[in-house]
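Design a sequence for this backbone.
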């Protein structure tokens, strides 16, 4: 919308808001709208066509490239068979082979030596990595060749095979060293489990050599190692991605994988190397995990975008199968995606520029063509504006045919202005009288409203004070009776525990922890009763306060409240970072923290988490105290209940007394501290207690100073 507004402002010299306000420009806009929609639709249709069909063509191309690459590998094996077949049929081989006796006789060493020299020469000339003559017994004893013997059926057989280093050394001592590839961790790929790959991927051919009677006692075993073999992938690349098949700067690459490791590739380590005309090959890098799962694990062909080393490529991957039909690697063909995207965006920009130019020209022509119609509308608008400013003018006759709709509209508008002028004079006289009466009545109503607001405020404050006084009076009477009834049983319990400990003697050590816990809880009951009395008659109690670290008190609270936490099956997360100490009464602070922790546990209906935090309270970078936070993932507190949770006897729980938070607030207030509450219904609640290093005089605080409510933001 902002872009469109700028275009209209530059073309027509008027803003979007002005165009909406004026009829002439609205007509101009509606006239230009079909052209605009047509051009925009053309842009989007073109973009859609390019995205859909160009993308399909790219995938079709890479699929065809992958087929060619795989067919080339098959041809490599076929040519390998032809090479071994040509060796076996050559006169030199047949002459040397006739000098060797059958397997049931002792072979002639000199003949074997001559044949091996011939095979070594042929191996070098034909570009094979190994070529040897092996007896039937040796082939049957080799576990790798034994798999191929079942496939030969007295005919030549070729296939792929993965061999570890020791088996490579049995064939040729140089193969094990050639197969070694250092693994390099790669983006979007699994982390390698080892630093070096020592296995080798072989294209192996087994050719039976029959005597004149058709019996086979010997085999020609030859092939090539794909590890570090760049000739194959370069030949495929030159075949598939020859000159002119890809856009400028696009790179076509081919790779052979052993499992997920690039063992033969022309993928460069850098897309555009600066220090060399021949980029380093990405040997030892790994394929992305997404491709690995689909191709090697699921055995499917990949035709899609893929992250190759450090850039996105249009890629095709096909699994490679060994002689047993097991997936052992992949063949890849693909080309870089960025040049295609660059050309695509350039085409879109060119198309957009042409369409914008056409839009501007067509809009200008429409504007010029409609100008003769819009001039009378502009004149009518000027007259209307002048009338609004207080001038007494009329439209009069327009330079148009009398049958024109705009001429009739101007005539009717002039008559309406005459009638409006007469009625305005009448309305003005009546409005002046009405204004005087309204002003008198308004002043009287304002005076009565102010008086009523003062009376309501006074009534509300009086009622609140009466309710509070009645609650405190009832609380004092209730606590006095509770204290009398509870203190005697607690004294009996405490005395009996001491007697029990004395009677058990040395055996008391077995239950000493439980006895001490009972004594502590009896002491806590006494402290709670004292706190209730303190809330109802705070002037009669003056609990001593001392400078203490906060973290040990919090940890003691967790021990006392563990039953409630375990019963609710909540997960407790502790974050204790506070380093300072504060002046508090330890039992009273324990009472506050236990109350908050139990409330947090009860607020969680099912399994949830509770965070318990302590950290230093900083102000302008200086530590002034310590803050304690109790956060839960419970049901939260509504805004209506949030402002009343610290009132005495107010509770939303069926089994609650409504005194827990009231007592807690009273304890923190007498220390000069603060309590902040942030809650969101359905998400949870955070209670934050702020305690100063040195307790402040609570007389300086009002009834609810230091108490803050708000919505939970976390």
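Sequence:
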């Amino acid at each position: 919308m902002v872009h469109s507004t700028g275009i209209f402002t530059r073309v027509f010299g008027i803003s979007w808001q002005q165009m909406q306000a004026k009829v002439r420009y609205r007509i101009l806009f509606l006239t230009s709208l079909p052209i605009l929609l047509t051009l925009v639709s053309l842009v989007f249709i073109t973009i859609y066509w390019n995205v859909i069909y160009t993308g399909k063509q790219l995938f079709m191309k890479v699929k065809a490239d992958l087929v060619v690459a795989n067919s080339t590998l098959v041809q490599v094996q076929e040519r390998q068979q032809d090479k071994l077949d040509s060796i076996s049929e050559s006169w030199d081989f047949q002459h040397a082979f006739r000098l060797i006796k059958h397997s049931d006789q002792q072979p002639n060493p000199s003949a074997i030596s001559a044949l091996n020299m011939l095979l070594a020469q042929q191996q070098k000339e034909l570009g094979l990595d190994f070529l040897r003559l092996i007896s039937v017994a040796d082939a049957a004893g080799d576990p790798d060749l034994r798999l191929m013997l079942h496939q030969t059926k007295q005919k030549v057989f070729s296939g792929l095979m993965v061999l570890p280093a020791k088996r490579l050394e049995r064939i040729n001592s140089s193969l094990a060293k050639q197969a070694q590839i250092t693994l390099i961790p790669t983006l979007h790929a699994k982390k390698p489990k080892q630093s070096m790959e020592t296995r080798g991927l072989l294209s192996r051919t087994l050719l039976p050599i029959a005597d004149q009677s058709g019996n086979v006692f010997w085999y020609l075993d030859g092939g090539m190692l794909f590890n570090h073999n760049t000739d194959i992938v370069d030949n495929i690349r030159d075949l598939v991605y020859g000159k002119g098949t890809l856009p400028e700067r696009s790179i076509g690459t081919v790779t052979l994988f052993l499992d997920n490791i690039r063992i033969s590739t022309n993928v460069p380590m850098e897309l555009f190397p600066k220090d060399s005309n021949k980029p380093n090959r990405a040997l030892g890098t790994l394929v992305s995990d997404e491709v690995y799962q689909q191709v090697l694990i699921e055995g499917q062909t990949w035709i899609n975008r893929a992250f190759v080393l450090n850039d996105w490529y249009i890629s095709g991957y096909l699994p490679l199968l060994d002689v047993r039909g097991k997936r052992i690697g992949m063949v890849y063909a693909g080309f870089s995606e960025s040049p295609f995207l660059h050309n695509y965006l350039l085409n879109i920009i060119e198309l957009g520029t042409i369409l914008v130019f056409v839009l501007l020209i067509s809009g200008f022509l429409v504007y010029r063509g409609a100008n003769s119609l819009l001039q009378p509308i502009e004149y009518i608008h000027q007259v209307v504006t002048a009338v609004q400013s207080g001038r007494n003018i009329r439209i009069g006759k327009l330079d148009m045919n009398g049958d024109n709709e705009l001429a009739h509209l101007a005539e009717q508008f002039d008559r309406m202005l005459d009638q409006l002028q007469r009625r305005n004079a009448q309305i003005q006289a009546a409005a002046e009288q009405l204004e005087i009466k309204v002003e008198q009545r308004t002043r009287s109503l304002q005076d009565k409203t102010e008086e009523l607001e003062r009376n309501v405020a006074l009534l509300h404050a009086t009622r609140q004070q009466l309710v509070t006084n009645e609650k405190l009076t009832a609380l004092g009477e209730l606590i006095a009776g509770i204290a009398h009834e509870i203190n005697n049983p607690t004294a009996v319990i405490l005395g009996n525990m001491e007697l029990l400990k004395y009677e058990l003697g040395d055996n008391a050590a077995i239950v000493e922890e439980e006895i001490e816990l009972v004594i502590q809880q009896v002491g806590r009951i006494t402290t709670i009763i004292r706190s209730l009395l303190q809330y109802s008659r705070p002037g009669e109690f003056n609990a001593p306060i001392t400078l203490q670290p906060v973290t040990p008190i919090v940890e003691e609270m967790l021990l006392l409240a563990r039953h409630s936490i375990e019963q609710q099956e909540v997960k407790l997360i502790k974050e204790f970072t506070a380093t300072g100490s504060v002046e508090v009464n330890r039992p009273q602070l324990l009472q506050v923290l236990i109350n908050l922790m139990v409330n947090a546990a009860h607020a969680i209906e099912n399994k949830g988490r509770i965070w318990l935090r302590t950290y230093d309270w900083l102000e302008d970078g200086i530590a002034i105290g310590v803050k304690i936070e109790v956060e839960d993932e419970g049901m939260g507190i509504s805004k209506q209940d949030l402002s009343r949770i610290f009132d005495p006897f107010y509770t939303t729980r069926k089994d609650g007394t409504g005194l827990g938070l009231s007592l807690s607030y009273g304890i923190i207030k007498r220390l000069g501290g603060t309590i902040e509450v942030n809650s969101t219904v359905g998400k949870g609640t955070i209670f934050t207690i702020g305690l100063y290093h040195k307790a402040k005089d609570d007389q300086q605080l009002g009834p609810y100073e230091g108490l803050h409510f708000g919505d939970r933001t976390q």
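The chain has three domains: 12-89+127-351, 436-540, 543-711.
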